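--- STAGE predict ---
source: upstream dedup step, 1 unique chain passed
mode: sequence only
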Amino acid sequence: MKVRAFLTAPFTPFKGQDYNLVVFKNGESVVPPELTELFLASCKKYAQKFKVYLATCLYQEEKNLCMALFSPKGELLGVQRATHINLRWIDEIEPYDDIEIISTPLGKIFLAADVDIYHPEVLRLAIFNECDFIISSQMFPMVDFNEDRIFFGARSAAAANRIYIIHTTTYSSALICPPELTSDGSGFLAYPTGKDQTVEFDWEDAGISRRALMDALLGSNCLHRYRNILEK
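--- STAGE serialize ---
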């Protein structure tokens, strides 16, 4: 399935680019609870106006850190709440205990909220639930931002899970995939940049190697033993 996505700051207008997906980068802070209703209403109107699927930046709803996906008709297709919390938010945010794979004509999408991208168990659960690609949104303060965090976070996740990841932060956006699918072996189809950018990919390109990975994991003794522990 061909995805043509625009990675941009919230509510940036565009014309004639034939996008089917827009992904909002984070601002300098998470959208606070008192502005969440207005923010989501504005996201709905944006998706309707430009007739695109829209993945939001991070926002806070009650005690959860959230991302959402809207349809071109403005329908709220799903909300993913962060299952792990950055320590700087430990007093105001609570972790969620489940993940949701959102089915769309573009594919089955998992929204990785903030530091969930660092947790392989979360991403593997998404893979086992037949996720086709991941949209990751992270909130970095400027003092903490560096490309190594992308390389060892989202890039490592794409390589380990044989999957495409659209990765955004306050200061960057990138398109990452299994390294063998890039001419330079880097795993970056679009390198991190602070500018708005257009990315295109077909998530089925990684489908064969991801299927092989899943078959190997499902047939492994390690997973079998893990299931036995859970069943006791």
